[in-house]
Amino acid sequence: MVAWGVRRAAGVRFAGMTVRITAGQFHAAEGVEDWRSLYHVVSAHFRTGSLAEGAALVDEIGRLAGEAEQRYLNIDLRHAGVTVTLGQRDIALARRISAAARKLGLPACLTRPRRLVPVVVRGRRMSYSERPSSFQSSA
Predict the structure, then answer these.
(1) CB contact burial 21-38 (16+ within 10 A = b; e otherwise)
(2) What are phi and psi of 43, to 5 degrees?
(3) Distance (Å, rounded) from C-alpha 90 to C-alpha 42?
(4) Could you read off the pLDDT of 66-100 as tens digits, one per residue?
(5) Are 17 and 1 in contact (CB under 8 A)?
């Protein structure tokens, strides 16, 4: 069963069903305070003191996420922290990931995510990785 809001929304899973919810509905839920919406995804960044601490969180997320959830889960592991992005607004998984980070003593970085703006240079759209830092928006 799929329920649609006024706007197109990313899906959230409830007992085997995918229900589409808006970013506002996601943020109204309890336990997702660590997460921020950016377009059609939700993302959270957890600060670490070392790569080993980050790897421990990634390992725990691997245990928490089921096979279906892993299809829309992206993880960026760096020395300074772990950024987790969900391609669906999955409240239950977001809660489990935040709880795992708290259990490991890793605080969430609650700053607003950086917004990237597409740039066309010489008639060619550049990928985010090849853009000079001056092209990235600080908003």
Answers:
(1) bbbeebbebeebebbbbe
(2) -145, 150
(3) 9
(4) 888 888 899 999 989 999 999 888 899 999 999 99
(5) yes
